Amino acid sequence: MLELRPNCECCDKDLPPSAEDAMICSFECTFCLDCVDTMLPNGRCPNCGGNFAPRPIRPANKLANNPPSTKRVVSGCKAR
């Protein structure tokens, strides 16, 4: 089950479960689309080097039994 992390690891923007601009790598590192497009070298994850895909949106009626993570991770971004 995806953690659905609550924020962009680069700019700390809130990314609620319904966020359409949340991007994840295969390790679930989570970034907003703006940071992926403007701050991350070649659109690759600065943690693992993997590519990004849009994070799926969990249906609202599934959140009660499968809540998103509340742990915020902020590691910053490497400028291009």
Could you describe the 3D structure shown?
It is a single chain. By secondary structure, the protein is low in regular secondary structure. The chain has a single domain (1-59), classed as Herpes Virus-1, CATH 3.30.40. It is built from one helix and three strands; from the N terminus they run ββαβ. The protein has one helix spanning 33-38, and strands at 22-24, 30-32, 53-54. The chain has a three-stranded antiparallel sheet with strand order 2-1-3.
Stated plainly, the CATH topology is called Herpes Virus-1
End-to-end C-alpha gap: 32 Å
Order of helices and strands: EEHE
Radius of gyration from the alpha-carbon trace, in angstroms: 12 Å
> Which residues sit in consecutive blocks of at least 5 with pLDDT less than 50?
none
Q: Domain count, please report it.
A: 1
The averaged pLDDT comes out at 93
Q: In percent terms, what proportion of residues is strand? A: 5-15%
Helix proportion: under 10%
Shape, per Cα inertia axes: elongated
Question: Number of helix segments?
Answer: 1
CATH architecture: 2-Layer Sandwich
